[in-house]
Amino acid sequence: MAKHSAVQPIGIFDSGIGGLTVANALVNHLPNENIIYFGDTAHMPYGDKSASAVQAYSIKIAHMLLQQHCKLIVIACYSATSVAYELVKEYVASKAIVMNVIDPMVHYIHAHHAHQRIGLIGTRQTINSNVYKKKIDKLNSNIELTSLATNLLASAIEEFGNSKVIDSLLDQYLSHPMLKNLDALILGCTHYPVVKENISRYFKNKIQVIDPSDIVAKAVKQRLEENQLLNIDNGGQQHFYVSDYTESFSAGTKMFFNGEIHLKHYPLWN
Ligand code: DGL
């Protein structure tokens, strides 16, 4: 690993503003870290794009974050993690640590939910990649994973927030036979933590609904500690960029991040 210093920023990227749920958890767990967030609003949603398109976008974003001297890059998007994590890791090589939002979750359920029936919901990209199952099977924890693409959910959350429209969409999706008799459900998409309560309510609070954001943030902290890269000085600067700026993105940030955000346009694709 190239020599890094603790004051260098953490880079975090997503297809849009939903990844702010992960950024929010990172800021809570690591308030001293300098953070650069990049949302590829020009290309969202990634959930419906081809794998090769998402891979190309992800490499270019990782390149930009390396130019900003990031010591660690978090792929906050589940769709991008599913199809581009290995490529990004290879591209970045020793220039920074690369982490994603799926591996910490897989280790968590291996540790806490062995021998159980676990549900997973996410975009079509994430579910079709089968990446959770491949990773879980490697750990031999006898977890029965059952997954369902809840494709419209992310854009509906962005449009309607936490509302009655979402409850009826959830009724449609969550009543699917694939999601019967679960012990726990993994929220495999940046947007779903916003409606975690609605999902728990649908299951009458009888199963654990797992928002990976905190689990990811703790894993990032641990990785920084292991590499003596935790920023203990007074950093804490945060910059939020999007590849296409509109007022509605700016207004939408409130749903995903606690606190004021000043979104800036970063014309990566011009
Ligand atoms: N950020 C995406 C994810 O977590 C959801 C939105 C999209 O499809 O781009 O999969």
Order of helix and strand elements from N to C terminus: EHEHEHEHEHHEHHEHEHEHE
The structural class is alpha/beta
Order of strands, main sheet, comes to 4-3-1-2-9-10
Helix segment tally: 11
How would you describe the shape? globular
How many structural domains are formed by the residues?
Answer: 2
Residue-averaged pLDDT: 96
Radius of gyration: 18 Å
Task: List each distinct ligand once.
Answer: D-glutamic acid
CATH architecture of the largest domain: 3-Layer(aba) Sandwich
Looking at the structure, the CATH topology of the largest domain is Rossmann fold
- Helical coverage, percent range: 40-55%
Distance between the terminal alpha carbons, to the nearest Å? 32 Å
Fraction of residues in β-strands: 15-25%
Number of distinct beta strands = 10
Q: How is this fold's topology laid out?
A:
Blueprint: E1 10-14, H1 20-29, E2 35-39, H2 51-67, E3 72-75, H3 78-92, E4 97-100, H4 103-112, E5 117-122, H5 124-129, H6 131-139, E6 144-149, H7 153-160, H8 164-174, E7 184-188, H9 196-202, E8 208-210, H10 213-226, E9 238-242, H11 247-256, E10 263-265
Parallel strand pairs: 1-2, 1-3, 2-9, 3-4, 5-6, 5-7, 7-8, 9-10
Describe it for me?
- The chain has 11 helices and 10 strands.
- With 270 residues, the chain is α/β, with parallel strands linked by helices.
- The protein folds into 2 domains: 10-100 and 214-265, Rossmann fold (3-Layer(aba) Sandwich); 103-212, Rossmann fold.
- The strands form 2 sheets. A 6-stranded parallel beta sheet has the order 4-3-1-2-9-10, with helices on both faces. The chain has a 4-stranded parallel beta sheet with strand order 6-5-7-8, sandwiched between helices.
- Helix 1 (20-29) crosses helix 10 (213-226).
- It starts with 9 loop residues before the first strand and ends in a 5-residue tail after the last strand.
- The relative contact order is 0.20.
- The structure holds D-glutamic acid (DGL).
- D-glutamic acid binds at residues 14-16, 18-19, 44-47, 77-79, 123, 126, 154, 189-191.
